[in-house]
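Issue: ligand-bound run for S-adenosyl-L-homocysteine - logging full I/O for the record.

Environment: standard queue, default settings, no custom constraints.

Inputs:
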Amino acid sequence: MTDYSTLIKDVFTSNGLDSLLNSLVVEKLNFLIDRMTSVNENMNLTAITDAEDIILKHIADSATIIKYIPQNARLLDVGTGGGFPALPVAIIRPDVSVYALDSTAKKLKYIDDTAVALGLTNLKTVNGRAEELGKSVNYRERFDVVTARAVSALNILTELCVPFVKIGGLFISMKGSSANEEIDLAKSGIIQLGGEKFRDNKFILKYSDTELQRHLVISKKQKNTPPQFPRMHNRIVKKPL
Ligand code: SAH
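Outputs:
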């Protein structure tokens, strides 16, 4: 197995995230990177294949949400795909119960196998569509934190994600440079769904010559989501709130 530990520490330090690391976390992240680079050869988990890019754009990027997650939280990652941010969060925060939701069973199988190989007991996968599970009593308003990265535009994502958040909990959307325009289009919907006005936490994710504009767009849930939401997927997409 390739040893990425120095690179992991350097990338985390470059982004003020080094306090999240200890030897066990580094070992598990190292294993995850090694597994991603080999599994990715026959499964399309990510377009990013270079180890340095995986560490910066997937692992460190996922770690930027850690400071917003309360102790012992129940967290749902909507559209987790290859497990981002779900896997790094479960590795770095053993106190957090992570649920990784995706409509594609194949990707979840990879996450389940990876969680077993990593000895993670705090990560479960959930196969289904967000707009359907958001109506189920087992999932609706049952999470302290709901995250989504690279799933869809914010005005669609809010309707998919906010129904899962408990009152007082957080919806955290991880966005790139289009965040400002996306917030503008989503600002009436977030209120209708029971969330507070979005806060935009903007920062640069960086390592060596790479600098990426990132935004953690966060809304705290204030009121219950009205029962008519989430609507059917085609309605959500055709007529965003
Ligand atoms: N969050 C990951 C993956 C993004 S790809 C990352 O940042 O790398 C988007 C994923 O969202 C895909 O795996 C797709 O299957 C899933 N997805 C999209 N819409 C969904 C929905 N309505 N319900 C559940 N999963 C959905």
